[in-house]
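Minutes, project check-in

Agenda point 3 was the complex the collaborators sent over. CS summarized: two entities, 610 residues total, and the question is how they sit relative to each other. Sequences were read into the notes so everyone works from the same version.
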Amino acid sequence: MKENNVIEAEELTKEFGAFTAVNAISFEVKKGEIFGFLGANGAGKTTAMKMLIGISKPSSGKAKVAGFDVYAQAESIKKNIGYMSQKFALYDDLTVKENITFFGGIYGLSRARIKEKTKHLIMELGLDGIADQLVGSLPLGWKQKLSFSVSLLHEPKIVFLDEPTGGVDPITRRQFWEMIYKSANQGTTIFVTTHYMDEAEYCDRVSIMVDGRIEALDTPKKLKAQFNVDNMNDVFLKLARG
Amino acid sequence: MKRFIGFIKKEFYHIFRDKRSLFILFGMPIAQILLFGFAITNEINNVDIAILDHSKDASTQEIINKISASKYFTIEQFITREADIEDAFKKGKIKAVLNFEKDFSKNLIKEQRATLQIISDATDPNTANTITNYISSILKNYEQSKNRSIELDYQVIPETRMVYNPELKSVFTFVPGVMTIILMLVSAMMTSISITREKELGTMEILLVSPIKPFQVIIGKVVPYIFLSVINAIVIVILSIFIFKMPVQGSLFLLGAESVLFIIASLALGILISTISETQQTAMMISLMGLMLPVILLSGFIFPISSMPEPLQVISHIIPAKWFIVIIKGIMLKGVDISFLWKESVILIGMTILFIGLSIKKYKIRLE
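CS then shared the predicted structure for the full assembly.
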């Protein structure tokens, strides 16, 4: 593994019977990078991501995440990554504070550390008055921001975001991306899948998956030049339609 | 360990903040035990009957007095004509009519035999049967009191004794059954629902990505329900002892230990159900249809297994509840110890191991 890489995949493949969901993909993600992982529905993004975060075993190929092997060291990977799924995944019937305490707890943070983190988070997100309210009563945008912050609680090296901004209004999306930038600046690597092509423009580098393969991988600027179009949407359409 | 306590704490928040699960957990057991104990009973009390007395003599009067003096029957009306019997039944209140023949006393003395017809309403066959039996035994009693002075040459006098439940209280058979149903439902249904809920919400995925191990997740989900089920078992036993005067002949400790074993078996079944269902609704349907019905119908709770057709008897063997009912009846009513129950206990342990094994296998396939 190269010094600066936090993710390395080589010919990573996942087969379900006769169907190849992920077909020999190879790529690298550098430390502190915002890496966009794009593709149409069913292109294999989620499956690829699941192999990287250690909840699905690859059929063949190699991959290392945060310096650990996905086959043999899934447990070590889990300690060093954060994950936010496309389904909003905090507990609705727990309060903001209880959610933070619970997730801090399962990542093994000490009580003092959880307390400190909770205080910090509540201040940063401006959740002062509602820290003791059930999460179910919060607007979706706030839930998502909270969910992102919770995935960063244990200060992971890499955070995986699976379509984090689905169903959120443009203003909240904007705020969400500001949070992403902020943590990337602090050295966290961001691996994000998305449907929104304007979001692809915010990424340092973007890969586009079509039918289980990575068909393009570069900075948004170079991709636009390569396909001779002026936005990422057109790059995506050109690739996806073949 | 600290992670684990946090996990259990969270599980209790879920339970106590959801009114529906709270009701199922604590409302249902109490409601069921009271319902089965008081309302649903095989015994009869104060059944309304009618009398059609064609003789109106000393003997018939004596019999009528005997019947009306028992707590089982109330004489609602006297009919004078055969034609009115049908009417009396149709009104629906009368469950039986006693028809004394003409010259009842005379026949009895002259020919040593007289006829009393018992007509009962068999729209409810069980009750009709019970009523006829009760009346017959009152008549036997009358006969014996009359015959005391006469010496017969040969006589067989059956002397019956009902052991383990001398008063034939039906609540004694219902309590073990209800306890079994409740422990099974609470343990299996509630765990399978709570695990599938995490799947549905997507939090299960988050937990799987975290360093907490899958078996820790499952144990964390199950431990609160073990705790609550034990409380339930205690409540049921207390209710049945103090309200229904149910005896506990055997050791309370053994009863507790066997209950915990059955709770764990049910939880294991709940985990298995959660591995095959994706939504809470499926889990609930499987638990209700797949557990509740067989437990009620095939466990020997209501219908005796020995009178079932062969294939159903075979099926009843694979129902964990059947074995547990044998165990609690044995401990509570017969007062037997483990040396009589080891076979049933081993079967329950075996089933538990099987359920857990299957769940682990299913779970692994999911992760592949």
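Noted in discussion: DSSP finds 14 helices and four strands in chain B.
Follow-up: revisit at the next meeting once the mutant set is ready.
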